[in-house]
Amino acid sequence: MSVPGRASPAISPANPALLPVSNREQATSPPRGVMFDDVMAAAKNLSDMTLAHEIAVNENFQLKQNALPENSLAGQVKRVVHQAFWDVLEADLSAEPPQYEYAIRLFEEIREILLSFLMPGGNRLHNQICEVLDIDLIRKQAEHSAVDIQGLANYVINTMGKMCAPVRDEDIRELKATTNIVEMLRQIFRVLDLMRMDMTNFVIRNIRPHIQHHLVEYERNKFQEILEETPNALSQTTEWLKESIDEELLSETVVSPGTEQSPTASLSPLLVLNNCYLKLLQWDYQTKVLPETLVTDGTRLQEVTEKLTQLKMIACLSLITNNMVGAVTEGLPELANRLKRISAVLLEGMNKETFNLKEALNSIGVQTCAEVNKALKERGSPTLNAEVQANLIGQFSTLGEKDNPVCTLMDKRIRLYMKSLLCLPNTQKSMPPMPGGLSVIHQELELLGCQYANIVNLNKQVYGPFYANIFRKLLFRDETVGKIDASLPTN
């Protein structure tokens, strides 16, 4: 029987070439010569790798109930089917004589679930469960209408109480207080599903150190399997690297025109790769497909990018405020923190399509003027005149325009800081200096920068050999091969 609320991890590869055919109606088709089974195997490998990666790098990772949306067709069908089952069960148990077939099937499944919870060495409880929930014996009792359904349910609840985590104690108490036998059985399955999830997350917590220890080798081997099953599995990655190589070669040609040395001879693969990673901070995660080697970190990179965009806007607002009214607000450190908090709240969700940035910036401008005037009044100083306030609000509003010079400046400084993080030696513990104008977001930017650098450094370790192979093919010069191998980390 299928019980409501069963959880299963749903991880979808971001690369269309690795998606199962049923999910790929509008994506690219697999290349000729690649069989359906190969694509499916590659998709499973990527899903396994993504799950292992998530467990290893996300300390808060845990599986949750995979509930269907309330108003979805699938959700409605599920509710109707399950309600029909419980209605039939209630009718069967209320019949004269009672019909026990569905109830027996439930207890058979309950027995298997309880047995699956047992740890090694739990033979005594194993034997007890098998003895009390002896399905053959229950069927014989049913033939004589002598099944004690309530007694069996009570035994199950008491056994669940011995096995469950403390967080489920309240659920067990509620089960014991339930008087309707059908509702009791329904709730037993609900709590069993919660216990199953608790057990799964307990196992995840315990295997995390092992996965972390072997993560680089595991991911690299898994991705090699994907390459063997799907020959074009690095197409997006190749384009990603090629774009930065072309940009770097063009830059060198402009800087040193007419040089006799081959442009590729002085090309640094590590520099190219770092520039590739920096592009991810301006990636359009809604429309552009990520390089295959970054699929496992797609969500994390998107979160970093979105938080960085918000921090950049806060820095821009602070810079304009300091330039325009810094002279009159000097000596009011708490004001700067208050303005920062206001900006952060009003810019929350600014990466969503429905977000009205112009309206938010205007509101921040109005509140900034109000807060500044309030602080000036408290100090007995003259408030801002109407012209200054209008100018401040107007400059805030222009930050949403394309190629705004203040945004461009802050973006360059943030990228410079992020780039300096990627160039830090592994042995260096101190953070690089913070560029000017970013002091208002100093702590947040350091934290975000560390998260970003950790993602990048792990990615380099795992996929360094694959990047080296791509560089060889793109540059195709023997004299660069040794240089490439030495530049990119492989362990």
From TrEMBL:
Q: Which organism is it from?
A: Mesocricetus auratus (Golden hamster)
Q: Which family does it belong to?
A: Belongs to the TCP11 family.
- Pfam families from the xrefs? Tcp11 (PF05794)
One of the GO BP terms on file: signal transduction
Query: What PANTHER family does its record include?
Result: T-COMPLEX PROTEIN 11-LIKE PROTEIN 2, TESTIS-SPECIFIC PROTEIN PBS13 T-COMPLEX 11
* Region (Disordered) residue spans: 1-30
User: What name does this protein carry?
Assistant: T-complex protein 11-like protein 2 isoform X2
Cross-referenced InterPro entries? Tcp11
